[in-house]
Amino acid sequence: MITRITGRIVNVTDQAAILEAGPMCYEVLVPAAALGPLAKLKGADAVLHTLYTLEGNPATGQLAPRLMGFLSETDRSFFYELTKVKGISNRRALRVMCVPSHQIAAAIEHGDDKTLTSLPEVGKKSAAQMITELRGRMQPFLAPSAAVLPVSELTDAQRVAVDILVSWGDRRADAQHWIAEAVKADPALKEPDAMVKAAYRVKQGA
Fold it and tell me: In this structure, is residue 30 part of a structural domain?
């Protein structure tokens, strides 16, 4: 299994980077968001975290090896999660990843179908499928400012505020995110009721 490759960027096409590693040259399929950064490294060394797959029709025996590469292990793990969604193939997932993975993860976690449908090849049905199948599993991929505050770091008042929101029908992950954002914006918030009101302002402004 090839899990990482280091080599000189020889060329970057509309869907792949060509890396020279020793006597070998590899075509590595990469996410759309990685094409620009890799193009700027043309002639220099780069490290890609890779996945090796076979592409084609197993029934006919017509299979071709493909190497896919990512700028970080986190992006590779996100890609793996994304391809678990029904209807999203490896190639399609690479095209969908035209923006940083943490932005897509945040859109999934917050149920933001508007952002998701702005991505290539993601219609309303695909966006709904992504939210349904992946929501609640995006925490490892969120940017620090968008991450849900761990329960262990919540104060007693914040836990009460989260419980109030959950009792009103909101998802716990969403409630924790809104409370964290509200407290970050106004550290003077100490009472659960005030936190709940501020959290709903965060929700409405999202």
Answer: yes
pTM comes to 0.69
With both helix axes pointing from N to C terminus, report the angle between 156-167 and 192-205 in degrees, rounded to the nearest 10. Answer: 60
Quick check: 16 pLDDT over 90? yes
Tokens of 135: 């929501």
Query: Is residue 62 one of the residues assigned to a domain?
Result: yes
Taking residues 139-146, report their average pLDDT. Answer: 73
Least confident interval from 78-87, 139-148, 167-176: 139-148
* Strand 24-29 to 62-70 pairing: parallel
How far apart CA 193 and CA 201 sit, in angstroms, is: 13
Domain harbouring 196, CATH code: 1.10.8
Amino acid at 32: A
Q: Confirm if 158 and 199 have CB atoms less than 8 A apart.
A: no
Alpha-carbon 189 to chain mean position = 31
Of residues 158, 133, 10, the one with CA closest to residue 116: 133
